[in-house]
Design goal:
Radius of gyration of chain B: 16 Å
Enzyme class (chain B): transferase
Distance between the termini of chain A: 5 Å
Order of helices and strands of chain A: EEEEEHEEHHEHEEEEHEHE
Strand order of the largest sheet of chain A: 1-14-13-12-8-9
Strand order of the largest sheet of chain B: 4-3-7-8-9
Radius of gyration of chain A: 18 Å
Oligomer: heterodimer
Strand content of chain A: 25-35%
Largest sheet of chain B: 5 strands, parallel
Strand content of chain B: 25-35%
Organism (chain B): Hibiscus syriacus (Rose of Sharon)
Number of helices of chain B: 5
Largest interface: A-B, 43 and 42 residues
Structural class of chain A: alpha/beta
Largest sheet of chain A: 6 strands, mixed
Structural class of chain B: alpha/beta
Distance between the termini of chain B: 19 Å
GO molecular function (chain B): adenine phosphoribosyltransferase activity
Shape of chain A: globular
Number of strands of chain B: 9
Number of helices of chain A: 6
Number of strands of chain A: 14
Subunit structure (chain B): Homodimer.
Helix content of chain A: 10-25%
Pathway (chain B): Purine metabolism; AMP biosynthesis via salvage pathway; AMP from adenine: step 1/1
CATH architecture of one domain in chain B: 3-Layer(aba) Sandwich
Order of helices and strands of chain B: HEEHHEHEEEEHEE
Shape of chain B: globular
Chain lengths: 258, 182
């Protein structure tokens, strides 16, 4: 079941949704006019779509240097059922691929969102509306899908874009942060000198699962004295509890998928 | 057509923000690093603006970006001109059905993949990457698009290394760059 919502801090308000799921192993691809192209066969499965979800808009980010960024000072969310009309199209433009990259994983594929020009535009707008005018000078994007969403946001809010990369991709001097995978570890790197102490930063990725990658990105930025204002993703997989792994760092997402 | 815009006043700022890192990824290579360009919001915006001004209103429906640095420049262009963004990726990164195109490296071969169904016959496409060197990757990208019936209008990069003759490898397809580096 997938839910679409905007979450803020530790006060999420969820709505129950009904969805239809495509049969396992079946994947559809969206057509330009919003329909779906089934693979060539006489079988016409039910269309996989999001229905009847709601989203709640969190209060805006606190102003520069305000204590309202801290969890304790964030106002509790009243029960609002404000539905941003853009969210439904964004959510339905994301396709789920079963058993990728390995059996049992339902992969959230944002590439179909990028084919829907209005939905992609709306995705960026939702982030930009939230972060514009908040004195954010750095947008850090995690390789590689964070490179798709980060730069348009950075350009719109007048921030620099800083790529966070796998090892040995960035030329010149870098700092590294190791992080755990399900099996083994991986490393994330950032350029030395890209960011300065005292800068306010966002971290962008397409999706948060366990939160391991985002955590590594937070540590890299904090090691050089940057204040991480918020982590922002298109999709959250709440069952994997990534949000908790971010500790006191707020997380903002557009769509939640169970 | 080579459109090395010496006269556009924005080019100087863009060029000066690109840093050269010697001996990366291996000895003898002078690596053109665009990450420093991305740290200058005005120069980054000027870069995107120059591309958008060229391609807006030309009925381009697809911007294909080559992993990973093509993912940085392609989407802002696509968003501004109202085109779809299609990522072209290394093997096994794209989920679902893909088509593959192999191409040659200095030593060995590599492969570029694109989603089936992302691009339709008749789509007018741009291919975007940060830099063209030998042109091998851009060639593979063009082939992928043409195999599904798209019309590749132009390849577009921030930087060209003209000594490596990538332009000639594009089989007559037009190439547009902002900066040349010898």
């Amino acid at each position: 079941m997938r839910r679409a919502l905007i979450l803020y801090s530790s006060n999420p308000i969820y709505s129950q949704l009904s969805t239809t799921r495509a049969p396992p192993g079946y994947v559809v691809f969206p057509k330009r006019d919003g329909g779906w192209i089934p693979p060539s066969s006489s079988y016409q499965p039910p269309v996989f779509r999001m229905r009847n979800y709601k989203c709640t808009l969190p209060p805006p980010l606190g102003s520069v240097g305000a204590a309202s960024d801290s969890v304790a000072n964030r106002p509790k969310m009243a029960s609002q059922d404000e539905q941003d009309p853009r969210i439904s199209k964004i959510s339905s433009a994301i396709r789920v691929i079963p058993n990728f990259p390995k059996p049992g994983i339902m992969f959230q594929d944002i590439t179909t969102l990028l084919l829907d020009t209005k939905a992609f535009r709306d995705t960026i707008d939702l982030f930009v509306e939230r972060y514009r005018g908040k004195d954010i000078s750095v947008v850090a994007g995690i390789e590689a899908r964070g490179f798709i969403f980060g730069p348009p946001i950075a350009l719109a809010i007048g921030a620099k874009f800083v790529p966070m990369r796998k090892p040995n991709k960035l030329p010149g001097e870098v700092i590294s942060e190791e992080y755990s995978l399900e099996y083994g570890t991986d490393k994330m790197e950032m350029h030395v000198g890209a960011v300065q102490a005292g800068e306010r930063a966002l971290i962008i990725d397409d999706l948060i699962a366990t939160g391991g990658t985002l955590c590594a990105a937070i540590r890299l930025l904090e090691r050089v004295g940057v204040q991480v204002v918020e982590c922002a993703c298109v999709i959250e997989l709440p069952e994997l509890k990534g949000r908790e792994r971010l500790g006191d760092k707020p997380l903002f997402v557009l769509v939640s998928s169970d | 057509m080579s459109a090395y815009r010496e006269k556009d006043p924005r080019i100087h700022g863009i060029q000066s923000r690109i840093r050269v890192v010697p001996n990366f990824p291996k000895p003898g290579i002078m690596f053109q690093d665009i990450t420093t360009l991305l740290l200058d919001p005005k120069a980054f915006k000027d870069t995107v603006d120059l591309f958008v001004e060229r391609y807006r209103g030309k009925n381009i429906s697809v911007v294909a970006g080559i992993e990973a640095r093509g993912f940085i420049f392609g989407p802002p262009i696509a968003l501004e001109i109202g085109a779809k963004f299609v990522p072209l990726r290394k093997p096994k990164k794209l989920p679902g059905k893909v088509i593959s195109e192999e191409y040659e490296l200095e030593y060995g071969r590599d492969c570029l993949e694109m989603h089936l169904g992302a691009v339709e016959p008749g789509d007018r496409a741009l291919v975007v990457d940060d830099l063209i060197a030998t042109g091998g990757t851009l060639c593979a990208a063009m082939k992928l698009l043409e195999r599904v019936g798209a019309d590749v209008v132009e390849c577009t990069c921030v930087i060209e290394l003209p000594d490596l003759k990538g332009r000639e490898r594009l089989n007559g397809k037009a190439l547009y760059v902002l900066v040349e580096s010898h």
